[in-house]
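Pasting as-is:
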Amino acid sequence: MVGAPYARTFPIAPGGIALFSYIVRRSLQAIPLLLLISVILYWILSNAPGGPLAPYLQNPHITAADIARLKHNFGLDQPLPIRYVRWLGMVLQGDLGYSNSNSESVTTAIVERIPATVLLSGTSLFLSLVIGISIGIFAAIKPYSTVDYIVTTLAFFGQSMPVFWFALMLQLAFAVGGITAFGYHFALPSAGISASDEFDLGDRIAHLILPTVVLSFLNIAVWSRFTRSSMLEVVKTDYMRTAAAKGLDRSKIILRHGLKNALIPVVTIIALSLPDLFSGAVVTETIFAWPGMGRLFFSALGQFDFSLLMGYLVIVSFLVVFFNLVADVAYAYLDPRVKYD
């Protein structure tokens, strides 16, 4: 059949048994990996200067008796393996503990900030996919043209540009300086998610613009380069030339036959970016005072909030492992040469 370099033969039994068994097998393999990651994280944070008591040790009036009492109350006078097993038991029951700095439930703190992070990262992810892949395809179709050189230059700029610098420049240009157009002068918000507690769609979009541009620019730069490189290889293949020789519409050849194979290496990059949808962007959220997971992690790191740091890092680790599994399954759909064995 024209449009495919090889026959699509999935080694999947009726009902998708092979796919299901593959997912189960990979999920079981992920369990010891996540346990090992949690052990390493717990050991590193426990042996950091101050350890879990770091927020309390900042008090200049604390005494040795106070420290001993705090260690006993938090169970820190127990051996490290026992403390880890106790913490793991709580996590398996869905209890991530309480913040050391303000006694807030870690689960509550994380759940409250996930919607803001999903809004920002989801918008950025959507724009990055649409713009990055589109200009990557266009640059591959017209290689070494003026458009291709412009896309390549912007991609290199986006990859090498410090995120914090770009965010500050956008704030300076569009928030502090403002925008003048058609006789009107207005400035975009430089921080926060909204101007008031009441929901206002226009106000929410205005606050979303600058951080979304910062987050999207890097992804667009990376994904456009990968898409261009992969598409350049695909358009030179025999089956693409055969499809063109048979008189098929060029846009259908590119989008229906070429894009699916060109996206195979891009899947990895996109899948590794998906954990940011929930874990947040630390630098961007901090600079724009966006009340999401990234800013929560930065605040916890500054106060060395042990419970909050462990809860955040464990969730991020789980997301990375999970979306790697999603990438593997997507590989098998895009590339029939990939087996579930």
